[in-house]
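Why does residue order matter? Because the sequence determines the fold. Keep that principle in mind as you read this record.
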Amino acid sequence: MEEKETLRYSIWDPTGNITALVESAVAVGDQPAAAAALMRRHPEVEQVGFVRFPDVADHSGVQAELRMAGGEFCGNASMSTAALCLLRQGAPGGTETMPELVRIRVSGVE
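Structure:
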């Protein structure tokens, strides 16, 4: 019997374009198949991105890295990744307490 790893993911709807963000490590070559399986499980999901949170020792200032399953850029997934980053940092709700800038590295752009 083959054992399957469970993906850790969340589903976001920033502007009506529903996005799943996967936090589990998935090899780039396996991402399209993982995305397809996730979209079959959740038919409302329109795209899937894979998020990694760099080590603080990275010193690049980047708080999160997003790679879409196809390597493209996605604005909705970028917004969702920034929100996920803030949630992981424990930022409380409300615009008064939000930082002005969240630095993310995103596939499909330099």
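The two ends are 43 Å apart (CA to CA).
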